[in-house]
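In this supplementary section we document a worked example of the pipeline. Step one takes a protein sequence of length 648 as its only input; no multiple sequence alignment statistics are reported here. Step two produces a three-dimensional model, which step three serialises into structure tokens for compact storage. The input and output of this example are shown verbatim.
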Amino acid sequence: MLANVRRLLNSTIGKVVALAFLVVIALAFAAGDISGLRSGGASSDVVAKVGGTAVHDAELTKQVQQQLEATRQRNPNVDIAQLVAAGGVENVLQQLVTSIALEQYAQKAGMAVNSKLVDGQIASIPAFQGFTGKFDQATFERAIAQRGMTPAGLREAIGRDMLSNWLISPTIGASQLPEQIAVPYASLLLEKRAGQIALIPTAAVPQGNPPTDAELTAFYTRNRARYTVPERRVIRYALVSANSVAASAAPTDAEIAQAYRAAGSRFAASQRRTVRQVVLADQNAANQLAARVKGGTAIDAAARAAGLEASNFSDQNKAGLVAQTNQAIADAAFAAGEGAVIGPVRSPLGWHVLRVEKVTQIPGKTLEQARPELVAELSRSKAASALNAAQERIDGAINDGATFAEVVSEAKLAAQSTAAVTKAGTSPDQPNTPADPALARVVEAGFAAEQGDAPQIVQTEEDGSFAVVGVDRVMPAAPRPLAQVREDVQKAFLAERGQQAARKAAAAILAKVNGGTPLAQAVSASGLKVPAPTPLAATRAQLAAQQGQVPPPVELMFAMAPKKARLIAAPNNGGWFVVYLDSITPGDASGDKRAVSSARAGLSQIVGQEYAEQFAEAVRRSVGVTKNDAAVARVRTTLAPQGSAAAN
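The serialised model returned by step three reads:
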């Protein structure tokens, strides 16, 4: 998790400056936590000074919280402790410092932001636009007031980001790289290494005597976390579903008849029509086109002859046609018969010529024919009302202090209990049984409450079904007794002992190889029944093509000096690899135009970002930046008391 958070925080743009400031501001308003402003000395601690400008702890704290919201949009599981442990405070402070330094540098160079340009950018932010899609002053004032901002403060933030953007954009956009620089990188990819790999498997090393009770106890004590069961809870619940109120939700004949009468024309006979239309700007042209269509020319052909294209309204009722055209056109289309040519009819768009292509008669439905449809609708409606009434009664009882047992008894519900489940909804005693998705919200509510709390009502289905939930028992996280896991502990003990023995044997082979003995000879002299060393040869380009799926021994071979051997553990306590690098053949791409071109293309994607980082660092040094490490540490501790130390 921390690695993912660090990747989110340590992007190049994040370390330099947020270039797409409008997007950032819009997202920040959506998240409800924007703060691009310097606090003006409202806090007690100065965490950094940039030139003559102080950055206070309150501003840094708010910016870190804003960064958390932005990070959660990509990874909702990130919390403040993880962000702080991943260096979030330091990264956000660096962004603040860089933004202010760039602003000061730009001002010294005589750069300024026109107020009209800032206003134009504000007007383009969706959060400030009304229903018309245009900037709305009332919406703007309401949005910034809700977030404790002022118009002047927002303009300052946007102006600062615009200056930063003007300075950084030309630099980060630089993607050209001289061929002389690309050649060494291309040559590095052509570098070839050859060596050998020998596996000393755990299974090849004698297991030794069975472990004693004292050894198992010591191993178990040392690895208690491995055998610890997370907190479990037994959760009591009672379901109230649409099925449970089905009997009371069944509509009567009188209700069905009333619904049929209330439906009005819904079940009456009706028509649907397919109409093709051509819209012309000139009435004379429309009259000529209508005449050609009435004379037998297909409306599509007549439209094409006029340089236009006919549009189609397929299988529409009258209301649907009104929605897509207007009332007058729909009235005319539904007053004509199949095959009729209508128009020209005037509208704000021009003159409409229409042809009724098809008329479909929809027969009406009698009460008996409409009964199934009405019964389904009334049943759903009555069930929803019954569920809502039941929920209100139960909620009232809970507010009056009723216990889970009293609520269930009074409402005549069937109480049930989960097994002792973890927060994930699974039972450690039944590891092969997955969590019941139907109880996901019940379990979530059970872990959100404490034992002795009032019952809760949680919705379980979109149709209004709900559950009454209470906590029955809480079993704190604790290791299983050794007697219950003795077999697993013994297996783990033997695996660890075997891994240690395998490492000892591999280390002996390593010492001989580094002393000059060939790897195959050293393996043979060990007396272990292990596979012979495997020769290996590869280039860096081949490793790059694996996209991170390179076996660890091969990766190690490309980080070694030649004529040397090193150890690396095999996965899953499977033993140890002895890796020997025999030779390195340097690559030479000076005559390989394809390789150089490929290297230049790859480097061009990052060279602009590197230039931008170096430029920002030069600006920070030019302006002068000092940081108060003690104040920064206090911010970390305030934000995440349990995790701040991890950031150091």
